[in-house]
Each structure stands twice: as C-alpha cells, then as structure tokens.
Amino acid sequence: MKRSLAYFGERALLVLISVIVLFPIAWMFLTAFKQPRDAYSLSLNFEPTLQNFVTVFSEPWNLGSMVMNSVIVATVTVAIAVPCAALAAYSFSRFRVKGRKFLFFLILSTQFIPAVVIVLPFFLMFRQLDLLDTRIALIIVNLAIVTPFVIWMIKGFIDAIPTDSEEAAMIDGASRLRVIKDIVLPMAAPGILTSSIFCFILTWNEFLFALILSRRDAVTLPVGLVSFRTERGDLWELMSAAGVMITVPIFIMALFIQKHFTRGMTAGAVK
Amino acid sequence: MQDRLLPYWLLIPAFVIVLATTIYPLAYSFITSFRAWDLTKSRRPGDFVGIDNYVYAASESAFLNSLWVTFVFVITSVVLTVILAMALALLLRRKGPMHTFTRIILILPFAMSPALIGVSYRFMFNPEFGVLAKGIGAVFPALQGVPWLADPQLAMGILVLTDVWHWTPYMTFMCLGGLASIPRETEEAARIDGASNLRIVFGIILPQMRGVILVMAVLKTIFALKMFDQVVTLTGGGPGTSTETLAYFIFNVGFRWFDMGYASALAWILTAIMMFISIWYVRMLLSERKMATA
Questions:
Q1: Do B13 and A28 lie within an 8 Å CB cutoff?
Q2: CB atoms < 10 A from the CB of A229, how many?
C-alpha cells in the first residue's frame, strides 16, 4: 500500500515536471494559431487560423528575410567552425606537442569571455570597414563563441575512439592525413554531427551580437522578435508565430541529437 | 619532417579563428578602456586618460547597482538550478516509459532561444491577459492583479525563473552523466541493509557527486554572469534599474550612450571576474582528470 503511494507520487511528479517544461512552449504554439482577439483571452475554445503566419511573412515584418539571415549565418558558421575545430581536436587528442597544455587552456578560457566584451571592438571595426548590418559580420563574431566550444566537444568524442586501427594503418604505410580522412573521420562522424547541430543551435539562438551588429538587412530571427513590440503595444499573436518559426527547426534537431547530446555534454563537461 | 610539424598545422586554422575573434578584440578593448572616447562626438579614439574610467566606475551608483543585481541574480539562479537539476536527475535515472518521456522533452527548454523565452514569459505574466498571472490569481486570490513585471522583486524573481527553466535541463543531463558513472554497489548494499532513501541520497550518492556538483555550479555561475538576452526581452532592465545586470549595463553604456572608453573598462571588469572563475574552473577540471587517470 505504501509502495503504491510512492509509485503514484513519483508519476504525479513526472507529470508535473512535464507540464512545467511543456506549458510555456504549448501556450506559444496555441497563441500562434489564434486570431488577435483570441490571443488576449485564455480561452482554449477558439477558431484556429494561419493568418498570423501569413502576416509575419508579409510587409512590414518580412520574417522571410530574417529566416534567410538566420539560416545563412548559422550554416556558414558551422561550415567554418566544425572542420577547423575537428582538426584541432584531433591534434589535441592524439599528439603530445610542446605548449599543448597552454594552448588548450587558452582556447578553453576564451569560451568564458563575455560576449559583450568581444562585440565592442568588433562594432568599432565593422563600422570602419562598413560591415555593420551584414551577415559576414555576424558570422565572424559567432565563430568566436562557437569554435572553442566545438573543439572541446569533438575532442571528447575523438578521445573515446581507440587508436588501434589508426596505428595499424600507419604501420602499413598510410600517412597521418590519410588516417584522419579514412579512419578517424568516419568513426567520429556521429560526434561531429552532434557537435555541428549543437553549434547550429547556439548560432541560431544568438541574440546579443545580432542585436548590436544588425539594423535592417542582416536581422536574425531572435532579434526580429523585438520588432513586434510596437507603439500599439506588443503584438503577441505575431510574436508567437515568429516564435514557432524559431523553435520548430531547432526542436527537431535537438530531439534528433538528444541521445548523443546527453553523452557528448557529459563527456565534454564532466570528464 | 612533415609529420613532426603536422600537429601544429592541424591546430593553425582553429587557432587563427580564436586569435582573431577573441584575443584580438580583448586586447583592443583593454587598450580602449584607458581612453576617453565618446562615439557621438568623434569617430576616432580620444586621449589616454589612465585609469580614469575604472576610477569613475568605482564611484558610479549605476555600476554598483548592476554589480549587486548581477550578484543576486547569479546566486539565486545557480543555487536553484543546481538543486533542481540534482533532484530531477535522481528522479529521472530510474527506468520507465514516463521517465524516458520526461528525459526526452527536457531538451526542449535548453534548445529554445533565450530571447524567445523572455518574450513568452513576459506574455504569460502580463497582468491583464497573461495565462500565468491569471492562473496564479485564480488559485491564490490574494495574488490577483499583481503587476508581476512592474514590481522590482517579482521582476527579478521571474528573470531567475526564466533562467532556471532554460538551464535546469542541461544541468540535469550533466547530473545524469555523473550518476551513471558512480558505482552502484555501495548504494545497493545500503538498501539491502535497510537504509532509507534520504540516507542513501545524502550519505552515499551526494558525496560521490561532489566533483560533478562543483563543476555544475562553476559552469552555471559563468553562464549566469553572461546572461543578457532575457533582460532585454523580459524586463528591459526594469522596473527602474532593478534587473539591470552588469552585461546589460555595459550594453547600455556602449550602445545607447556610445561611451566606448567607459564601456570597455566595465567590460574588462566583467571579464576579470569571469576569467578568475574560469581559470579556477579549468584548473579544477585538469586536476580532476589527473586524479581520474592516476
């Protein structure tokens, strides 16, 4: 009897946790499909509409161009950061070179530098170079945040790969670069994919850089949210529709890597 | 010959990126922090003024206020997140379909954009039509019509809430990783001997999790010191300056008042705090690893 009480208590707790996790997300999704007059009521009995999505993609909001900016900035950042980081991670993982400890320490420490410190000089520099409000500017500063993190993560995955087959191939006369390309990369692929998605999420959600370095042309989705705050007040139904556009791709990716994520995270951070 | 230099060649691309995107800007803002530079008046950096910017900071009440706000925010958010994450991990490490489901959805708050989290909590706590404001009012009539985000303490509370909601999942995953790596024999032996759950948690599990908890606390401290997005989208630093964290204050000085010299000095104060904690953190990680491999 006592056991079943604990049993139900535990399940009730799990339900409560799920509600706390899901409710804010669910409420945003619901609001995105409400008409403006329903958005300000708590009623669940409303006529769903796609009008908000039509509105945010048309003038003057132009969410389409923000989606493009977000996709391009995040994709290019990943495409530059991940290959560079993978090579560095391999080097850190396999070689005991001079100064290795210092370099690793340096790269790790930069991960913790506040973004607001980095963005100040970049703002001044991009102003000189006339690069303010461009995607290139956002890609450059995002690399600062993402690269150290990805090195750290991929190193964890490469550390977990046994070196036996690499050594065997080297004895057979394969060069180190060949070994990396034909043996290490295929084995590390799941880890690299996980790190890439993680890096994509970080860049996609990045707010501070985009807020400061973009005005009109290079505005990304998270910053676009702020534009729904108008003189007429906050347009919640449109914000929610934009919020759905921000979260859906990221949620799909996050759920896709969920399993690896738990492992990669703990490998990177704890061990 | 080629093979000997290869380790360095592999490091070069990443190192160039890190050098160009973090080390260089850091050095640049360090130098700027000793200059007077009002961007609204001049496009060129002004004269060197020694440590004037730092001296000014020490006496400016807005800065001191932001330090205090940051301190309160960091402490509450770190303590709550670590305790909740530990408790959640203890619950979720058990097997069962509901446990698995909760573990899976737990990644969603972490993947959600913090700016968006700020926006949606702002919506839910709107006193007129916010679902949480109304819901709380319905359950506790005394709290009906409370202007949540217009009250300094409550606004801070909600700011902490958004941060805890965002970060607890990540920290729970770290805890689960830690729990999976500690041997279960002692725990099972104690259970057979009839030890209570509480005793097992506090007497056996938590002592073994000391390292993980320490790492979590330091990591979360660093994230909390950096927190910026929700201040913009949830409270705007208000009401008044009650939620104006250091990162947000620096943003205001730099990009609303365009005082580059002073903003750089403030940014370096924040950097110094973070570096101090980070270096300590990395050292701790390296020494833990040494202990683990020894």
A1: no
A2: 15
**Count of CB contacts below 8 A, A vs B?**
264
Which chain B residues are within 8 Å of A114, Cβ to Cβ?
225-226, 247, 267, 270-271, 274
CA distance to partner chain A, nearest, from residue B205 (Å): 16
Measured in whole angstroms, how far is the alpha carbon of residue B209 from the centre of its chain? Answer: 21
Prediction ipTM score: 0.88
Maximum alpha-carbon separation in chain A: 74
Write down the residue that tokens 């100064």 correspond to: A99
Cβ of A115 within 8 Å of Cβ of B116? The answer is no
**pLDDT digit string, tens, across residues B25-74:** 889 989 989 988 888 777 778 788 888 889 888 888 999 999 999 999 99
Enumerate residues 6+ apart whose C-beta is below 8 A from A227: A61, A219
**What topology does CATH give the domain B56-293?**
MetI-like fold (1.10.3720)
Specify the 3-state DSSP secondary structure of B226. helix
CB within 8 Å: B102 and A269: no
Q: pLDDT tens for residues A237-268?
A: 899 999 999 999 999 988 888 777 665 555 44
Contacts with A256 (C-beta within 8 Å, 6 or more apart), sequence order: A197
Q: Which of B13, B101, B124 sits opposite A87 (nearest CB)?
A: B13
Q: Does the structure show a pLDDT above 70 at A200?
A: yes
Q: Which fold has domain A63-223+245-269?
A: MetI-like fold (1.10.3720)
In contact, A143 and A75? CB cutoff 8 Å:
no
Q: What angle do CA A142, B11, A161 make, to 5 degrees?
A: 95
Query: CA-to-CA distance for B137 and B145, rounded, in angstroms?
Result: 7
Residue of A nearest to B90 (CA): A10
> What are the boundaries of each domain within chain B?
56-293
- Touching A: B residues 242-281, CB under 8 Å: 247, 250-251, 254-255, 260, 263-264, 267-268, 270-271, 274-275, 277-279, 281
